[in-house]
Amino acid sequence: MSQGLLNVEELEKALKEFKLAGIVRTLELRLKQAQEEGFACSEFLGLLLEDEKNSRADNRRSRLYKEAHLPFEKGLEDFDFTFQPSIKKQEILELSTCRFLEKYTNILFLGQPGTGKTHLSVALGLKALGYGKTVLFTSVWEMIQRLQASRADFSYQRKIEEYLKPDLLILDELGYRSMAEKTVEDVFEIVSRRYEKGSIIITSNRSVSEWDKVFIDRTLTSAIVDRLMHHSVIIEIKGESYRFKKKD
Ligand code: ADP
Ligand code: MG
């Protein structure tokens, strides 16, 4: 670059102004390569653009992972299907293709604590992220707490949008606590507005027939259940807690 108009620092400064951080990162290396290997100008420019593209894709991927708020990172490869024979592995593998997202199908994982409901939801969330989909994981309790708090500062609509936007919404731990009427309306709002627009995965330690004990109001319960179940896959896990598994 001795004949160039700008030195490396000046080039980097200009690239930063144009927000081309991916090129900034590889510039020195690429300049050296260009000199040593005698790249054609078009080839050199092509490589830099490729670097920028890859860097943007990486940034998007890590942003999506962060915004998904997954509680841990465990995939299907970490799941011991032999421990839970009531789960059809083939059915989970089919779900892991994430085709259910295109059909706006919901998934319900039902079973006792420790049977792997959260693990499988997270594993499917990771798959969805791998396909470049947006995911949001939250416990039901956390979601309704946040929605309630948002009423106070008038950010309710904005908050609701946050739960409508992702391609996949994972609502964990339905049923551990009963809900107040206003909070059930919030759940209804989310479920009805995502109906046939975006998939939801719900985990619950209670069977659907008991959900009226969670949602209290019978009319709202059936309104929620109807919409959730219309296009859904229900995975009932009948087995004991993995937490009780004997260490071998
Ligand atoms: P649940 O959500 O049903 O209460 P979790 O998914 O949180 O249960 O599982 C409890 C713990 O046991 C987690 O650390 C999870 O990774 C692990 N676990 C559960 N089932 C299995 C399994 N079949 N194979 C491997 N790990 C499992
Ligand atoms: Mg759980």
Describe this structure in words.
The protein is 54% helix and 12% strand. α3 (41-68) packs antiparallel against α6 and α9 packs parallel to α11. The protein has helices at residues 8-17, 21-37, 41-68, 89-95, 99-102, 117-130, 140-152, 156-164, 181-194, 211-215, 218-230, and strands at 106-111, 135-139, 168-174, 199-204, 232-237. It is elongated and about 75 Å long. The chain is of the alpha/beta class and 248 residues long. It folds into two domains: 2-64, no CATH class; 76-247, 3-Layer(aba) Sandwich (Rossmann fold). The model has no long low-confidence stretch (mean pLDDT 94). α9 (181-194) links the parallel β3 (168-174) and β4. Strands 2-3-4-1-5 form a five-stranded parallel β-sheet. The protein starts with 7 loop residues before the first helix and ends in an 11-residue tail after the last strand. It contains eleven helices and five strands. It binds adenosine-5'-diphosphate and magnesium ion (MG). Adenosine-5'-diphosphate binds at residues 74, 78-80, 83-84, 111, 113-119, 203, 242-243. Adenosine-5'-diphosphate binds next to α6.
